[in-house]
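chain below, 346 aa
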Amino acid sequence: MTLLLKPFTSEYLGSLKNRVVMSAMTRGFADQNHGCTNLMEDYYLRRAKDGVAIILTEGMIVHPSGDGYNNVPHMWNKSHADSWKKTITSIHQTGSKIFCQLWHCGRISHEDYTGGIQPVSSTTRQAEGINRQNNKPFSVPRSLRIEEIPEIYSMFLNATHHALEAGFDGVELHLGHGYLCDQFFDARINDRTDRYGGSIENRCRFALELTEAVLKKYGSKKVIVRISPSRDMGGIYDWPDLKEMIDFLIPAFEDIGLKLLDISSARADYYETSGRIIRMVRPKWPHFLIGGTSLSHQQAIEEIKQSYLDVVTWGRFILANPDFVSRLKNNTPIIPMDKTMLKSLY
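prediction:
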């Protein structure tokens, strides 16, 4: 058994089967009420039975006004929560843990998904390009008024309540990948002149207030934060003022009590994106650190041995290989993902 595949115990997450984590990946197979289906249960359960230690679910929308995708799950009422109970129980029976990723799309949306309501953001700047969900331009967003911002926090608090009531081990706050919170972080997008825009401290305020609100109510063992300071956007895309942002944000997360941090990159070379960020973050972050992008078995072991990561995430590899952990154990070749695999759950 390699270092990656041995059981271990975390002071934050307790006993884990190994250090393999299934990354959150949008799939779009929820039912008409945005609930979990039997096919979705089978999809996650196959990975858990094979040995994945922690499953980070696909993003779940915290309120209809924050939706932006076809057929994605929601987590804003009891019906949504109840639809996941059977899946959660099945996952727990395998000895795996499952966290619910919570998501607000912000300007990466269209009125087709928000019930006709204009999407909100840090800005009135329209996202570039065509929305692949409906083949229309993204909607022009409305800039959130200061007095509305606590309403967004309440959406996440409400979703966290429902997720934990359903039995999830915790939640992951999705603060990356260009969605609502990232629209506050990113100086290229955030053009506000109030206390939520301009300086690095101001652009981080939304994320820190949101995270602190959830931590205060539910505790540091129930909350993971996902950020993506560097990712592939048709080329490497970094936050402006990257080093200064990291220097401010990471200690600030620690100051408010965060213990579980996930640094993501999405469809990018690990060493050019999240791996580079992790090397900037680790000296400032003594707590639990999650990350990884299509690493080989040996590369994952090296990241753990050098204390860059505590657990390692895989997305496309686990999507394409429900028996991913078995393949690592048996040194069996990993099947690469192709786009046809996105059309079904298996």
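The two ends are 27 Å apart (CA to CA). The first strand starts at residue 8 and ends at 10.
thats it, cya
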